[in-house]
Structures are given as structure tokens and as C-alpha cells.
Amino acid sequence: MNxxxxxxxxxxxxxxxGARRAKFIADFRTAMLDxxxxxxxxxxxxxELLDGFRMLSQNFFSLPDIRKxxxxxxxxxxxxxYTPVGLEKGEFADDPDIKEFFQLGxxxxxxxxxxxxxFTPWLNRIFKNFRITFIxxxxxxxxxxxxxxxxxxxxxGNSIVRAIHYIPTENPNRNDRGAVKGGNIGGMCASQHTDxxxxxxxxxxxKGLELWYKGxxxxxxxxxxxxxxxxxxxxxxxxxxxxxxxxxxxxxCEPNKDRYSLPFFGHPKEETSLVPLEKFLMTDAEEKLRxxxxxxxxxxxxxxxxxxxxx
Length: 311
Description:
The protein has 8 helices and 12 strands. 29% of the residues lie in helices and 19% in strands. By secondary structure, the protein is α+β, with helices and mostly antiparallel strands.
């Protein structure tokens, strides 16, 4: 299998309205029902901004660990600032992933990295770019579900952007398919997991991301630098009682190679109801409510952050 599995959408089609918007919505829905992943062109996120951050990211992550840990914010559930290697793990894993990251959102308590003074302001600009695109995609999501266009936009909040550094390893594991739920084979860059949020927007130029699809892992490679990957998260699956699919995926790194990526995790406000929408409970309601039991986004987020080791 190759990238032909994944649809490529153009955000300008959505903005254009009319038949172009209708085609965008139809393709968006097809992707969410099938893989939960698609590529997005003309997304409005400045490539120059993304490219310019690459060196800043390398400069930050090359700092000694003791200096990076100054920017760790344990009391904020690692939702802002630095998270060291060996802490976060996949939701099915016992062993942590071999990665470190720094993240921020729309809040005032983001630490300023004195050693790389452009790092935090530049990442904040990237966050704002991603957020604008995310809001457009929330409109598309609502329309695809026959909801009022601003239904999800009104609930948006708590989103974050994460600069990730996957640590080079001599012999990284290629997969953890031999594992059972509750444990994984150590040494994955990122063991198999699903994303917690509504939608993830990802900029990553290096291969490694793989999607579990029909019994095998399929490499997801961005076809050109002007494209980002968009995928459905658990909160959107929960809200639609499984109608839209949060795809299981992993990151497999190349031996002795650093890997950098920039995902934006688009969230709703913590008080937002995650109870499956009534339209998706017309059949098998009791079973669906057992499978998707969380009442609010905040409740669900706290459960998942505990699962993956961030609180």
C-alpha cells in the first residue's frame, strides 16, 4: 500500500463554497469514515514559518537535559513547556516512547526559553497559524455531520502545538505488534496509540508515521512540503459514537537519525459535553454509551493523560 490510500483535500475548495465546498465535505466525510486520515493542501499555514522553526527546534533540543528541565511544568500536567524523554507512553504501553517535546497553547504561563530566545515566540506564531486552519476544519466537520456550521467552533479551546524530538537510537524497534494491550516492546519512537483530541494537524517531513489499516501498518508519507496530515482524534470519535474513526498509528524511526515533527492537537474547552450526539444514538444506544461513557472533554482528557503518564 502507499499514499493512494489517503485522500488529498484542498482547503481553498472549502472556502470557495458551492460545488467545490460540497466536494470537500464529501471527501472529508469519506476520510473520517474510512482511515480517519487525509492530506491537506493550501492550508494557510506558512511553510516559511514552519521551515524557519526547524533550526530553532534543533537548537532547543540540543541543550543539556538539566537546562531543558527548567522549562518542565509538572503541575500543569505537562500541557505546557518541556516534557523529558522517558515520560510519555502510548495508551497500550508499559514502556515510554523515546521522545521529548515542548508544547504551548493559548495561555499566558508558557515558559520563555532564554537560551533560544526566538524559540517560544516562533512556536506561538505557528500555534496561531494552525489554530486558524483548525477552526476552518471544525466548520467542515460540523457540516459533514449535518450540524450547524459553528457548532464545534463555539466549543474550541485548550488546543496545543507540540514540537517533538525523537531521540536517535542505534536499533529502534520496527513494530510492537507482538504486544498485547497493557504492554509494548520498548524502543519505539512512538508506540501504537490514538490521539486524544478532536482533530490533529501534523507537519512532518521525515518518514516514520504509520497507520494501522485493515490488519497492517501503512506508511504515511507527506507527498510534498506544502501538505500537512490531518487525522481524527478520540474526542471526535466519542462525540459521534464511533461514526468517525480515530486511527491507530505509531512512529517508527530510522537507526541513528533524529526525527522532528510538529503536531497541533485541536481540542474543545474542558467543559464541553462529549456525550455522543443524539443522532448517533438512534440504534444500540446502551451499547454505544457503555463504549463512549465520558461526559465532558475535561474528564476524558484527565483519564487519558493518566494513561499515557503525563499526570
